[in-house]
Specification:
It holds the Pfam family DegT_DnrJ_EryC1. By secondary structure, the chain is α/β, with parallel strands linked by helices. It contains 12 helices and 16 strands. Residues 1-14 have low confidence and may be disordered.
Length: 381
């Protein structure tokens, strides 16, 4: 799950456009020693030193036991399903980036769409059980915008029906609840390190693994199934992260806490400035959750003077690049809309959210002047 991005490291952006999200880019001079080390070692990929360092550093930072790095989050989703030999039908959400469902099709699995909770915008546990059939083998929920799913309710259903749970946690880097990292729930959790994420490696991803045996299988699958030079044990894929990406991840980890603190302040400023705007509802107040403020979604309700799409157009006229996340629904795309579960009558809450939610810009470096400019567009309607 990713957003549009214009990547410029040096010089900084000088145009007047404001993007929905921008990658956090440390000073280029900080990255040069990493590149020099890679150049000197002549190890560019295949589990080199920075790859190993980043896996361990991320385990330590995220509070998880095992993690396998990938070239991107989509390959990680595809491989996570293969790791548990998922087949048949998988229950998932229509309100997500298309990679969630695409990973199922790549594995020959039938997606079964279930409606979302109107408040959290996550998969509604009350709708999951009624969608289970003899062909159902797993549930693939999404921590939408980094807000945790009802992990206890989902796990209870999975245990009752002997189903696997694979979380698309692309937005959930660093998110914690009172029980610890949200990434520890389910059988596997999949992260994205795309350039638009709160933590990025330009392109990248990871699978959070519960034990060493599962990680070993995943590591085989992401490297063509190789165990050694002459032994292939599975029809794996080339999903490895390069040393350059891993090195950038090591550098990013030095700045992540400051980046998250900046996002937190921007989130609070938006909520303060928009609290009295009629017809605008700020979604996803973190409450007791340790959030990562990966997105700032608002809901444009009926008593706002403009529709969501009209407000979107007004922002675009001002060269403020907001996003209708997620529109259209995955279930509306041609490869999915023929499925019985994709019918809009089955997905009223998801359809409503898709027509009302708008994600405002949020990223480290977004200035107070830019925030004021964004809010003024809304207030002027």
């Amino acid at each position: 799950m990713s957003a549009s991005v214009q990547l410029r490291a040096v010089p900084p952006r000088t145009d007047e456009r404001i993007y929905v999200t921008q990658p956090h880019l440390p000073p280029l001079a900080e990255f040069l020693p990493y590149l020099q080390e890679i150049w000197s070692s002549k190890i560019l990929t295949n589990g080199g030193p920075f790859h190993r360092q980043l896996e361990q550093a991320l385990c330590d930072y995220l509070g998880v036991k095992y993690l396998s790095l990938f070239a991107n989050g989509t390959l990680a989703l595809v491989t996570a399903l293969q790791a548990h030999r998922i087949t048949g039908e998988v229950i998932t959400t229509p309100y997500s980036f298309v990679a969630t469902a695409h990973s199922l099709l790549w594995n020959g699995i039938k997606p079964v769409f279930v409606d979302i909770d109107p408040n959290t915008l996550n998969l509604d546990p009350k709708r999951i059980e009624e969608a289970i059939t003899p062909q159902t083998t797993a549930i693939m929920p999404v921590h939408c915008y980094g807000h945790p799913c009802d992990v206890e309710a989902i796990q209870k259903i999975a245990d009752n029906y002997n189903l696997k749970v694979i979380y698309d946690a692309a937005h959930a880097f660093g998110v914690r609840t009172e029980s610890g990292s949200v990434l520890q729930h389910g059988d596997l959790s999949v992260l994205s390190f795309h350039a638009t994420k709160v933590f990025n490696t330009f392109e990248g991803g990871a699978i959070i693994c519960p034990d060493a045996k599962t990680k070993q299988r995943i590591d085989h699958l992401k490297n063509f199934g190789f165990v050694d030079e002459v032994t292939v044990v599975a029809p794996g894929i080339n999903g490895k992260m390069s040393e350059v990406n891993a090195a950038f991840g090591m550098l990013q980890l030095q700045h992540i806490d400051a980046a998250l603190e900046s996002r937190k302040k921007i989130d609070a400023t938006y909520r303060r400035l928009l609290s009295q705007v009629r017809g605008i509802r700020c979604l996803g107040d973190s409450g007791e959750t340790v959030a990562n403020y990966s997105y700032f979604p608002i809901q444009v309700d009926a008593d706002f003077p403009l529709s969501r799409d009209a407000l979107y157009d007004k922002f675009r006229e001002q060269e403020i690049i907001v996003r209708r996340y997620f529109y259209p629904l995955i279930s509306d795309f041609p490869m999915y809309r023929g499925l019985p579960s994709a019918h809009r009558s089955n997905l009223p809450c998801a359809a409503d959210a898709s027509s009302k939610v708008l994600c405002l810009p949020i990223y480290p470096g977004l200035s107070e002047a830019d925030i004021d400019r964004i809010v003024e567009v809304i207030e002027s309607c």
